[in-house]
Amino acid sequence: MKMTKQWITGLLAALLALGAGAQEATIRKNLAERLPQLPTINEVSKTPVPGLYEIRVNDNEIYYSDAEGNYLIQGHLIDVRQKRNLTEERVDKLLAIDFKSLPFKDAFTVVRGNGQRKMAIFSDPNCGYCKRIERDLAKLDNVTIHVFLYPVLGPGSTEKSRLVWCSKERSQAWLDLMLKDQLPSSAACDVQAIQRNLAFGQKLKVQGTPTLFFADGSRVPGAIDLAQIERQLAAASR
Q1: pLDDT in tens, 180-215
Q2: How far apart are CA 12 and CA 17, in angstroms?
Q3: Are residues 90 and 103 in the same domain?
Q4: Strand 143-149 and strand 108-112: pairing?
Q5: Among residues 84, 88, 161, 197, which is most buried (max CB within 10 A)?
Q6: What whole-number distance in Å separates Cα of residue 238 and Cα of residue 123?
């Protein structure tokens, strides 16, 4: 049989895939037997480091293992030549979302300037860091901010969120509350949107407030400063 270059290349690829599959099976088997408390492994993949494999559990938690599953490493893998945190980049990619799929009907918007740049924020009215970041957000121009009420800090947060959501001008009520500590007037309305936000946030694994999402799907937890917000908006607009 005549062995063409294409045939040989295909055979080598198949053999490599077979070997990779066997290696993954070995790692899964050994780690499961030796660390039964380890959550179910979602994925095993090679890293740029020879002999080191990425172990992904709980959708976005990253560990590392040798080729036999004899060792498990928890920590960050850093490419010192390129000055890149490969673990952080990988987690960011896993946590990215489809921005357009956010349930905007359950949010209200704050628009400044032409509103061309887009972002969303999950925020709690009793969160000090949320109030701090609102002061920076107020300095942005040409931005649309979708605010998802996410009261996770107790009954007081739930009540303030209700007052904001039931206001005639939700955006203004929110800004008055966060920037001036002015409570909205009492009113009644359907607040199921807030409950949907809590359920949706849990699905997205939003574990604290504020959590920001940008148009490119990237997420940033915590109260980042104005300069970093501008960088994220610029990156998301490319």
Answers
A1: 999 999 889 999 999 999 999 999 989 999 999 999
A2: 9
A3: no
A4: antiparallel
A5: 161
A6: 26
Q: CB-based burial of residue 75 (10 Å sphere; 0-12 exposed, 13-18 middle, 19+ buried)?
A: exposed
Are 91 and 183 contained in the same domain? no
Domain count of the fold of the chain: 2
**Residue numbers of the domain that contains 208:** 99-236
Helical axes 128-137 vs 170-180, angle rounded to 10°: 110
Tell me the pLDDT tens digit for each residue of 94-110: 988 999 999 999 999 99
DSSP 8-state symbol, 177: H
Same domain, 157 and 70: no
Amino acid at 33: E
Whether residue 75 sits in one domain with residue 150: no
Residues 126 and 167 in one domain: yes
Residue 62 CB coordination number (10 Å) = 22
Encoding tokens for residue 80?
Answer: 């010192």
Same domain, 167 and 128: yes
**Whether residues 41 and 91 fall in one domain:** yes
pTM score, two decimals?
Answer: 0.77
CA distance 167 to 46: 52
* 70 band by pLDDT with thresholds 50, 70 and 90: very high
